[in-house]
């Protein structure tokens, strides 16, 4: 049995591993960068070792420093979590060469599944169904174009070393093939240092189905059934569930058996996931589900499998790495109920899902326990920094039926209250109401087909009435204390029969609310639905935060209509292209902001003149700082 475990990761997965290790009486060692010195995973571990500056390339991706930390702490094993170095065969080998236990598959297994073309060839020989396509060594444009014609359009070009949606291009017609191939190769070379590609038949109604597999050093391999991860945004998973809706027993048996064959083909040990793409145009059928790739690590979405099987996958990882056989055999595994997971990100859907950073001054999550599980790596008062993945928590529910699980998850995300960091909680709530998702007929393109899900809806009339009542209560309290008539600040019109109305501001927009001896005066707001703020309060509805005030104040959101060009996130101004008094046209670049390792061009909202320029090259700016103002041309 492992005695002391170093976790070569951070955030929620590090905290997740620590929980299981502690239950198994295994001492834990956390590693951390300068930015994570007081992070939750550091506070949770038995001890912690500093490994470098904030950038991951100088800390969490420095395998030599991580191994040195393990040796210095007297750890006998290393768990990589997911991301960072978890699928790096060279790091796995270096851990073993240092005399430490690697909690993961053999380096050879990682390498065997590392390149998509080689993996597909291996799977084909193992009798695992693969997507029709071409993965040969002849990479000439002419050969690839001929193979695309043979496969039939539309086709998908994929980088063999790709991942995360990079190095992928859909091509609808032969005339577009050469240009798409060149673009794909250029991106693949820049992202992975390898411009080789493969071709696949484009699946018109794709569902992403994956199977959890587990192997040990004694030749045993089992599956723990399937997950559906079809709800994705730009190839990144948003909602995951188990089991897959619409999966019949025969199809489940076929796909899970194929996954076990895939794992056995590479002598797999530990936790792994075989990912399949399903053509769901006629529902889920065994003859229309094809191998995509294998993830040789624990998955972000592993909790839904744990919930339906009653298995602690991290415990299994630690036991198998310590040389034990699998705790259960296939006949001892079964599915109970339905589980769904939502990924909570620090990002702003209303601004194109830009990451949001800052201190979590309010961090109110559903209670962890019972049928709701919260996996997180932060607590109230912690800071979301620009250096790492913006996922801050996972919300998982487990119920008897899928319908019950959907309802429970809606309720859980609706109760999330976080500020001033913005999150996708309300976006998740809207996703969970989509008809296609509720019906279980979603495809991987569903979220892309509904860009409006990112829009912030107006505060509902019911909440507006509650908010106005709360403001009135506060004004009555303060006016009684001062003996003044502050209710006039509500803009109440006493001569408006049969009801009076009041004006309040929600996110800086005037809203009229019925007022008088009716619902406004009798409504009782839920005490946790609002939170005092400097000029009013923050009102929460379905995970969305609204600034409610008596007077029009800064809203934190600047629009093209007012001509204010604001920083969408904290960053550094790296270029200023205009001067005060300069005439500009709609869409013209005004300046460039570098943030989250990306460049963001800020442009003129309409034709006009730059009347104010408050940004200079090299200046550090915060989110919502107004960097320029453009006055529109007179009609």
Which regions contain 5 or more consecutive residues with pLDDT less than 50? Answer: 554-560
Task: From the 3D structure, determine the CATH topology of the largest domain.
Answer: D-amino Acid Aminotransferase, Chain A, domain 1
- Which word captures the global form? globular
The portion of residues forming beta strands comes to: 25-35%
Number of helical stretches of at least 4 residues: 16
Strand neighbour order, sheet with most strands: 14-13-10-11-12-15-22-20
CATH architecture of the largest domain: 2-Layer Sandwich
What is the CA-atom radius of gyration, in angstroms? 27 Å
Name of the CATH superfamily of the largest domain: ATP-grasp fold, B domain
Measured distance between first and last alpha carbons: 78 Å
SS-based structural class? alpha+beta
Helix-residue proportion: 25-40%
Give the strand tally: 36
Q: Mean pLDDT score, rounded?
A: 90
Provide a descriptive summary of the structure in words.
26% of the residues lie in helices and 31% in strands. With 635 residues, the protein is α+β, with helices and mostly antiparallel strands. The protein folds into 5 domains: 100 residues, Rossmann fold (3-Layer(aba) Sandwich), CATH 3.40.50.20; 70 residues, Dna Ligase, domain 1 (2-Layer Sandwich), CATH 3.30.1490.20; 249 residues, D-amino Acid Aminotransferase, Chain A, domain 1 (2-Layer Sandwich); 89 residues, no CATH class; 73 residues, OB fold (Dihydrolipoamide Acetyltransferase, E2P) (Beta Barrel), CATH 2.40.50.100. Strands 14-13-10-11-12-15-22-20 form an 8-stranded antiparallel β-sheet. It has a 5-stranded parallel β-sheet with strand order 3-2-1-4-5. A hairpin with a 2-residue loop joins strand 32 and strand 33. Helix 12 packs antiparallel against helix 13. The longest helix has 22 residues. The protein is globular and about 80 Å long. 46% of the residues are buried. About 1% of the residues have low confidence.
């Amino acid at each position: 049995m492992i005695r002391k475990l170093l976790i070569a990761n951070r955030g929620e997965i590090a905290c997740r591993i620590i929980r299981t290790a502690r239950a198994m009486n295994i001492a834990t060692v956390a590693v951390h960068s300068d930015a994570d010195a007081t992070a939750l995973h550091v506070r949770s571990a038995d001890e912690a070792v500093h490994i470098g500056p904030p950038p991951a390339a100088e800390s969490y991706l420095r395998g030599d420093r991580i191994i040195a930390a393990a040796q210095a702490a007297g750890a006998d094993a290393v768990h990589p979590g997911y991301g960072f170095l978890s699928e790096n065969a060279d790091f796995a080998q270096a851990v073993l060469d240092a005399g430490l236990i690697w909690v993961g598959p053999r380096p050879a297994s990682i390498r065997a599944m590392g390149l998509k073309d080689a993996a597909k060839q291996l799977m084909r020989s193992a009798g695992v169904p693969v997507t029709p396509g071409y993965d040969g060594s002849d990479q000439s444009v002419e050969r690839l174009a001929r193979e695309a014609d043979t496969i039939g359009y539309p086709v998908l070009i994929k980088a063999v070393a790709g991942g995360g949606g990079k190095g992928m291009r859909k091509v609808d017609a032969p005339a577009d093939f050469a240009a798409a191939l060149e673009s794909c190769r250029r991106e693949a070379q820049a992202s992975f240092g390898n411009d080789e590609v493969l071709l696949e038949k484009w699946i018109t109604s794709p569902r992403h189905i994956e199977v959890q597999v587990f192997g040990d050093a004694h030749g045993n391999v089992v599956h723990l059934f399937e997950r559906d991860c079809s709800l994705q945004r730009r190839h990144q998973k948003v909602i995951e569930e188990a089991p897959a809706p619409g999966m019949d027993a025969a199809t489940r048996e076929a796909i899970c058996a194929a996954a076990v064959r895939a794992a056995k083909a590479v002598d797999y040990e530990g936790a792994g996931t075989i990912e399949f793409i399903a053509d769901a145009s006629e529902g889920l059928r065994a003859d229309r589900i094809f191998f995509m790739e294998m993830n040789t690590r624990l998955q972000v979405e592993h909790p839904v499998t744990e919930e339906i099987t009653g298995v602690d996958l991290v415990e299994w990882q630690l036991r198998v790495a310590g040389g034990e056989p699998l705790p259960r055999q296939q006949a001892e595994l079964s599915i109970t109920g339905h589980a769904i997971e939502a990924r909570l990100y620090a990002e702003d859907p209303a601004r194109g899902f830009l990451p949001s950073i800052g201190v979590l001054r309010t961090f109110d999550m559903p209670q962890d326990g019972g049928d709701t599980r919260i996996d997180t790596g932060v607590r109230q008062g912690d800071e979301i920094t620009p250096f790492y993945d913006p996922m801050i928590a996972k919300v998982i529910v487990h119920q008897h039926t899928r319908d019950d699980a959907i309802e429970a998850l809606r309720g859980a995300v609706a109760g999330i209250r976080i500020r001033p960091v913005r999150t996708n909680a309300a976006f998740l709530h809207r996703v969970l109401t989509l008809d296609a998702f509720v019906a279980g007929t979603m495809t991987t393109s569903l979220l892309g087909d509904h860009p409006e899900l990112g829009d912030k809806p107006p505060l509902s009339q019911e909440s507006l009435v509650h908010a106005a009542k709360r403001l009135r209560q506060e004004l009555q309290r303060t006016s009684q204390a001062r003996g003044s008539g502050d209710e006039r600040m509500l803009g109440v019109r006493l001569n408006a029969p049969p009801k009076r109305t009041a004006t309040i501001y929600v996110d800086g927009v005037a809203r009229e609310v019925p007022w008088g001896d009716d619902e406004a005066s009798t409504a009782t707001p839920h005490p946790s639905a609002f939170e005092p703020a400097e000029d009013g309060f923050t009102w929460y509805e379905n995970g969305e935060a609204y600034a409610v005030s008596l007077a029009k104040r800064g809203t934190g959101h600047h629009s093209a209509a007012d001509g204010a060009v604001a920083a969408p996130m904290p960053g550094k101004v790296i270029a200023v292209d205009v001067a005060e008094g300069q005439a500009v046209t709609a869409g013209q670049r005004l300046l460039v902001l570098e943030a989250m390792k990306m460049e963001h061009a800020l442009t003129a909202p309409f034709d006009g003149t730059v009347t104010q320029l408050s940004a200079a090259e090299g200046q550090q700016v915060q989110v919502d700082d107004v960097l320029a103002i453009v006055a529109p041309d007179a009609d």
